[in-house]
Give the backbone structure.
Amino acid sequence: SQQGEEDPQALSIQEGENATMNCSYKTSINNLQWYRQNSGRGLVHLILIRSNEREKHSGRLRVTLDTSKKSSSLLITASRAADTASYFCATANTDKLIFGTGTRLQVFP
Amino acid sequence: DTGVSQNPRHKITKRGQNVTFRCDPISEHNRLYWYRQTLGQGPEFLTYFQNEAQLEKSRLLSDRFSAERPKGSFSTLEIQRTEQGDSAMYLCASSQTGGSRGTQYFGPGTRLTVL
């Protein structure tokens, strides 16, 4: 079963704009991870944020975590056409990951 | 470091046939995970190993599914008497420490189509 949901389900933006995706989950977690998946391909790990962290940056990515609201957000700044993909959040409580339903991002050149 | 590899990348089979997939994790990783992903959904956990020991199995893993990691290196996932509902992408991941602390690295997946 899915742990949570990403919002929005789909997002279309122009190159150069920022993209924000949100993730909500249901149970307590040790960490939350964001992955990218290009159409029909494997998942690429983007960033991991631990439950005692509130914000993390990696290049053009910014992730926030609010454990009181059981939610996280992923911000991609200055988007590029190559960012077009599905983005998933995944929570880890025990050793397995529980994924959300994903946000499909389309970046138009 | 060549990453996680999976073979085959695509498998088409007829209902009722058995299929076997292979996953080679990143060499120093002691944990190996199997997930299944259907169209439009996020991956769902199936099972995982620490070294050769299978530590957890999802209730999604029916009796027709069996996974092994005989020497603590590569793993195989076998589906017996395939059904059309088994059609999905089967993803393998590995990590160096427990997933609750470490990052899981995914392979490219094996796409199974059951006719």
Observations:
- The CA atoms of residues 36 and 90 of chain B lie 5 Å apart.
- Chain B touches chain A at residues 4, 31, 33, 35, 40-45, 48, 55-56, 89, 91, 93, 98-101, 103-109, 111 (CB under 8 Å).
